[in-house]
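User: Hi! I'm working on a homework problem where we have to compare a predicted structure to a textbook description. Could you give me the structure for the chain below?
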Amino acid sequence: MFQRTPSSIDIRDDWVTDPNWARRLKPGWQTRRRERARMEPQLTEEQKAKQAAISPEEKIRRQENANMEAMMKIHERIDQIVKDKATADALKPWYMLMCKRPCFHNDYLPTFNRSNVHLIDTHGKGITEITEKGPVFEGKQYELDVLIYATGFEVQRTGTYNQIRGANGLDINDKYREGVRTLLGIHSQGYPNMFVMGGLQASFQFNFTDIAESQDNYIAACIDYARSHGYLSMDPTPEAEEWWVQEVIKHRGKTSRNQECTPGYYNFEGEFQRRQDGNYNGGFFQYCNQLNEVRARMESNFTFINKPLTSE
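Assistant: Happy to help. Predicted structure tokens:
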């Protein structure tokens, strides 16, 4: 196994669903559970006061300490499972937990105890040459019968979209060259009737179904509003777009930890990342409120046209 950068491999602590428990559930239980998960945490006045008393510097210190403790537990698990010390050390990730997508697996680490499994650690360099016999690293040829590519992808650097041109003919990647600009991560001014799901500047959720459903409902409401009022197109106003860009910037992280991560998906492969070029980090509950607020003020947030769009 050829490794560029080790992944964080934590325990996959799940279990088989009890069929008796499942049979007791009443119809609609999934919807009710997801609605509870979306709700803002209900805090007592004492809890709110304690949170307000914590300085921004102290919050960052606690976050970083908790992050490092989590990574040290992953290191300990590697030492407990992988028998060869050199291999174990090479498998230890030396970065903050969320620098890369966290992994959960119970069979990955034990695999390196097998006699037919060998780790080739490239120390972050990666494989740069592959001959007809197999990969070459630091002058050594590794002859293989089968080579499986698990190289990932560069979604941030290669452009979020292929080619989308707006009403003025501007390619959207050219518009975003100086920074991503959207309304709610769904609309972009100058690109009428375009709705993007799960894109940049939207709320990020590990349960993608939640964010997808909230955006589904919002987009359906937009289309229904336009049709019921006889409009053929809708486009966010420059003011609405600017408001959302500032909301994204305001809620971005307050540390440089992302820039210090190893190159990967979350930091544009190590390239400079502007504060608006990411997700909305104000929380899912607040993001859903923002969706509702924009829906409630359609006429002030959008320019509507009641005639067909043309390419002219």
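For your comparison, note the following. The radius of gyration is 24 Å. Strands lie at 2-3, 9-10, 103-104, 120-121, 129-130, 135-137, 140-141, 233-236, 302-305. Good luck with the assignment!
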